Amino acid sequence: MSNHYYSDKPQVAHDRKAAEAVLRGISLRLVTDAGVFSKNGIDYGSRVLIDAMELPSGAHVLDVGCGYGPIGLTAAKLVPDGHVTMIDINERAVELSKENAKGNGIVNVTVLQSNLLTEVKKRDFDVILTNPPIRAGKETVHTIFEQAYDHLKVGGALWIVIQKKQGAPSAKAKLESLFTRVEEVTKDKGYRIFKALKEE
Ligand SMILES: C[S@@+](CC[C@H](N)C(=O)[O-])C[C@H]1O[C@@H](n2cnc3c(N)ncnc32)[C@H](O)[C@@H]1O
């Protein structure tokens, strides 16, 4: 039985809810459901990441583990002249992100079901964003960091949110082993935002 939020095919009965959220001053109506992460409202860590993320105009952005879409859809609204690819292993999350893009009139997104970044062919993203699936285990999270590095252009940046108690120090060490520069951009209630830069 696969009822945890990171299964590819949740079996739990549907429990759809719609909520209005204001993110970076943008109002979004987001539908959630049982079997997806943080179904009762936007995760606090996701909010901290959304508030901190810097997106160059026209950016090509990847949201890894998009869930029902709060991070990627806000990014798409912030860069109307750019494009956001959103991926998740969970088919219910993928369908919700597609529905939420449509419901909010967002057309500059592509939503894909993908285990890790396997289905992502583009390798020159400007920005990759993730609230990583801690519950899926450290190996999954660290593989996401490795694959994110490979999918960024030189000059691009990976932004992550992670709680101190959920392994922020080891995540930072892993990022430092891959990227030339890792900055702690902000911290809020135990959540850390790290920005890892891919330089020459
Ligand atoms: C912490 S949640 C964040 C969800 C969403 N971004 C949000 O802010 O509400 C992590 C997401 O990663 C997804 N995930 C877990 N394992 C994955 C994998 N191997 N490949 C891709 N996505 C995965 C989960 O299904 C979940 O939606």
From TrEMBL:
- Asked if the record carries the keyword Secreted, the reply is no
Q: Which SUPFAM superfamilies did the record assign?
A: S-adenosyl-L-methionine-dependent methyltransferases
Residues annotated as domain Methyltransferase small: 28-195
> Does Phosphoprotein show up as a keyword for this record?
no
Which GO molecular function entries does the Swiss-Prot or TrEMBL record give? methyltransferase activity
Xref: InterPro entries: RsmC/RlmG, SAM-dependent_MTases_sf, Small_mtfrase_dom
Q: What's one Pfam family the UniProt record gives for this protein?
A: MTS
What sections of the protein cross the membrane?
none
Q: Which UniProt keywords apply?
A: Methyltransferase, Transferase
One of the GO biological process terms? methylation
Q: What PANTHER family does the entry give?
A: RIBOSOMAL RNA SMALL SUBUNIT METHYLTRANSFERASE C
Record's protein name:
Class I SAM-dependent methyltransferase
Specify the taxonomic lineage. Answer: Bacteria, Bacillati, Bacillota, Bacilli, Bacillales
